[in-house]
Amino acid sequence: MKAFLVLENGIVMEGVSFGAETSSLGEVVFNTSMAGYQEILTDPSYKGQMINLTYPMIGNYGINPDDMESDTIHASGLIVKEYVSRPSNFQSKETLKDFLVRFGIPGIQGIDTRRLTRIIRNSGAMSGGIFVADAYSESFLEKVKSAPNMIGADLAKVVSTKEQYKFGDHTNNKYKLAVYDFGVKRNILKLLDTAGFNVHVFPAETKAETLLSENFDAYFLSNGPGDPEPLSYAIDAAKLIMKEKKPLFGICLGHQIIGLALGKKTAKLKFGHRGGNHPVRNEETKKIEITSQNHGFHVLEDSDQDTPITRINLFDNTVAGLKKVGLPVMAVQYHPEASPGPHDSAYHFQEFYEMVNKTKKG
């Protein structure tokens, strides 16, 4: 079946459908990771986005249930150069096509993904749509132009858990941790559990006063989709947690929320950072880590004495980490849990545990 990728600037690319035979809208972005399409598709941070994968052959190792980052696909569409219909991997339980069909997500192959990436880099991330049809229709572009903008979109409460729950081992772990779920990835919860925390996950709009009354030892602000500025409930929660001098760690969207709570500003990047090859310099040690990233917004402003910038993205010198002097607060813009990506930054979870341990000991 034919499929058409339509961008809001009027560019149309014809390809072949290999997912659900349905139409979908979203912000078209690109990801440079060479592997990990399943983790990318099921990452809640991709809510409302169509993913253009720059690696040319996609689907060759199939789908493994153990690699899910959530219970469903959150991306609204998948764009690839060549779909591999016969996966070869002993862990594969399903083809990528069947996976997309099962969750009702369209996929389009036969697209010049290098050209599409250049368009996004030059013009910026933009709205687009995948339309499965026998022929192109002018109505496709009209639908794309009516798609909601990512700026001002509070998607965190859309993907967040509706009920609180416990995760991992609660028999031997030492410290009780409250996780704000703005779209948390499963591997983040796994690594927090491995680091030694009793992990309790809460809906995005949970009041900080409620959690503070339960005497949690530490707090975590997760990754998630959309614009951080509309999340006044999360920003207020971060402010109160810091006011009470409780240990706090934020990743990706959580990093941006902490930045806003500290009085900084955020803005949308032209085409975002998405992939597993982003070099970040630790401003305290001057060491460079290769990181996995997935975000369209970032924290603005320079380093200052009270809120020093601790990490810098070497691709464009944007803020990739910060802290608050005198408070047990740490925040990074990248994904130390990888999934997919390099493990250079995995130490952050143990670093957070040690910060909590030091705080509890006074």
Walk me through this protein's architecture.
- The protein is α/β, with parallel strands linked by helices and 362 residues long.
- Helices cover 23% and strands 30% of the residues.
- It is built from 10 helices and 19 strands.
- It has helices at 37-41, 96-102, 113-123, 139-145, 156-159, 186-195, 208-212, 232-243, 253-261, 348-360, and strands at residues 2-7, 12-17, 24-31, 49-53, 57-58, 77-79, 82-83, 107-109, 126-132, 165-167, 175-181, 197-203, 218-221, 248-251, 266-282, 288-299, 309-313, 319-323, 329-332.
- Strands 10-12-11-13-14-19-18-17-15-16 form a 10-stranded mixed β-sheet, with helices on both faces. A 7-stranded mixed β-barrel has the order 1-2-8-6-4-3-9.
- Helix 8 links the parallel strand 13 and strand 14 (248-251).
- Helix 8 (232-243) packs across helix 9 (253-261).
- The N and C termini lie far apart (65 Å).
